[in-house]
Every structure is written in C-alpha cells, then in structure tokens.
C-alpha cells in the first residue's frame, strides 16, 4: 500500500481518529492497522511476517535464561535463512548453474515462482538488531508479542525503513497510552508528508520515464549518454527513497512518535565515509554496529580494518539485491572506503592536512565524489554485470565528453544539484527559517500558501502512482 494513495490516506485517517479517541486501545488498534496495511501484499506474506515476528519475540524472551546464546544464534540463523530463501535462492542456484554448467532449475520449478515478501530485508535487519541488543542487555524484551509486532510492523517505516532499534523506538511503543495530541507534531507531520509527496510525485516520478528510456538501451548508449543517465538516476533514486523516509517521518509525527532521519543531502559528501553518514543512515549504522564492529572494526590493525570495511560494504551490497551487480556495487564502495582511509594516512604523513580547511578543495572533492557516486549507480541500475562494466568503460573514455544533443538533460541535472544545495540550506537553518516565516508572514498568508501547496499535491496525486524503488529490497 503506497503512502500517496487514497487507500492509505483513508487507513491513516481512521487510525488517527481511533488513536486519539481510544488511548487505552492503541496497541490493539495499531496491531490491526499494521495487518491491514501489510495484507495488501498478500495473505501469505502476512502469515510469514506474523510467524517470524512471534518466533523472534519468544526467542528474545528466552534470552534471560540459561540458553541465551543458543537462542540468539538459532533465531538469527532462522531470520537470515528466511531472507536468503525468499531473496537469494534462485540467484544462488543460477550462479551455480553458470559455474558448473549443470542445469538445476526446470522451467516449472516452484523456486522460480517465489515472490519476494515486501519489506523482508528491512524487517529482518530490524529483528536481528533487536535480538542482539536484548542478548547484550542493551534493552529488555518487549512487554508482549503485540508490543513487539507494533514495533516491527508500524506501517510508517515497515516497507522501506528507516531501520529502527529497540532503544530508539520501543520506549515510544511502551508509552503509547501517554501520548497526547500536539499541534506542533501535526505541523511537523504535515511538513514532512508534503515534502515527501512533492519529492515523489513531482520530482522522482517525473524523472522515472527519462531514466528508463536511457537505460532501456544500455548496450548502445554512448559514454555521454551514460553520464546523463547516471546523473538523472542519482537524483531519481535519492528523491524517491528520501521521499519515502520523509513521508514515514511525517506519519510517525501524526501519531506522536519520532523515527530516525535517513538522509542528509548525501550528494554534498566529499568522500565515501561521509556519504554513508548521509545516505540511508540507519542501514549504514546497522552495518557498522552488527557487521563491521563485530568483525573487529579498527581494533586489530590497519590491514584488518580495511578487510572488515570491505566485507561490511560488500554485505551492504548483497542486502540490496540478488544480483552480481549489487555485489559489485558493495565491493566498489568497500574499495572506495579503503582507498579513502589510506589516502587520509598518506595525506597526514605528507603534511597536507591544511587542505581540509580549503573551500576550493572542498568543492572539488564534492564534484569528484559525486561523479564517482554516479559510476557506482551504474552498477546499481544496469541489469547484468557485463553490461554495467561495459557502460562504465565507455563513460571513462575520452569520447564520453561529447554531449551534443544532451545539453537539456545536463541543464536538468545541474538544476537538480542546485535543488539539492537548497535542501541542504533549508535543513541546516530549518529552525531559524521557521521562526522567520511565522514572524513575518501572518496566519492568513501562510494558510493561503499551505492551501495552494496542498492543491498542487492533490492534482499531482491524480496521475499514475509509481511504486517506490526501495520496495524491491
């Protein structure tokens, strides 16, 4: 169920009315609402999700007994196996066929009919984080299986994050009965929801057909067309994914809850480390806390640190999809992060630390890294590793800089980057700008503008509603 559909809006409004009218019944009400939201993806998917939720909850309850370690690993293995079966089985078998030359799947094999349950990657990672945190006594098990279900399945963040931790979100679930109506929260909710709808239906969905048109002819694209396609896709996926995250923030504020921020203008990053602190932040933190640090982090020497970093980023790539292009995408960022760490060491030894204070160096670093990010997006978007590498090779050739006939698309890309800078400014100065807005513009003027924005968004919503890109993960 998409956020920007009449069906979801109806579900949200009914849920909000019941939420504030019946505070003692909030857990049962959200339990049912989350089921209604998810059952749209299929009854089988809902049954699987409920089963994994109950299994994980009861395993976590047993982690205060003598079999805590066994239950931890058993529950993690079952959760990972569930994810692997639905997301990677066909990919692994097809890869084995290519390596061995032996046909393992027939055309009628039931494995080819497996449908990926929506949101499975997100709720699996959230369950694993919860299990580890309960085992390490960072958080106590949920009060009931219904509390845990609402924690895992809250419809605002279920399908595409943010990935919430027990210590961040469970206290809010436990205190649902104490939440009171707040006009400030509703204003914030309306702002983030409107921003997300604008990014999705006005920006991302506008870019989608142009991006699809370019990548439909990957094998015949020139290097210049490859760069234009990568520029447009970079902003399509950013606006699409950040739109979902910001709509999720807005919906949570309506219910008096707060979700983690998932994006902070990532294309203004100067290096891969900064990029992953700005892009899909909750996944980055998950990878750091539950992959990189358990592997040893930076505690066991530089070589081990680089290895751990490479492995962690490769896992991030695998999480995104069952394809060698996603594996290569993760490995690419792992290699980038490693090279950046080495670069920092060399720069320090050469006494070049003063460069960090140079504004010119900072701008150049942003431009260079944005183009590196666009190369990475080719791996993410193109079907087939050979096709992706072939296109990247053409993009890096001298002929790739002949943009004849593509200047309109380049102008759009520059405009989108300028919009990204504006968003950064608004994020950085949000509090001051909000105070200025309310101080110098009277309520009638603000109401008129809000009404105009709402009307524009409603008209935009009347068109075809595209799904979110990250629903496939």
From TrEMBL:
**Subcellular localization, as worded in the UniProt entry:** Cell membrane
User: Matching Pfam families, A to Z?
Assistant: MBOAT (PF03062)
| Keyword Transmembrane helix (UniProt) | yes
Q: Is the Heme keyword given for this protein?
A: no
- The entry's keywords: Acyltransferase, Cell membrane, Membrane, Transferase, Transmembrane, Transmembrane helix
Q: Name one GO biological process term.
A: alginic acid biosynthetic process
Q: A GO molecular-function term, please?
A: acyltransferase activity
Coiled-coil boundaries: none
> Membrane spanning segments where?
6-23, 35-58, 70-89, 110-132, 144-164, 185-208, 228-255, 306-322, 358-380, 400-422, 443-461
Name a GO CC annotation attached to this entry. plasma membrane
Topology in the membrane? Multi-pass membrane protein
**Per the similarity annotation, which family is this?**
Belongs to the membrane-bound acyltransferase family.
Protein name from the UniProt record: Membrane-bound O-acyltransferase family protein
Can you name the source organism?
Paenibacillus flagellatus
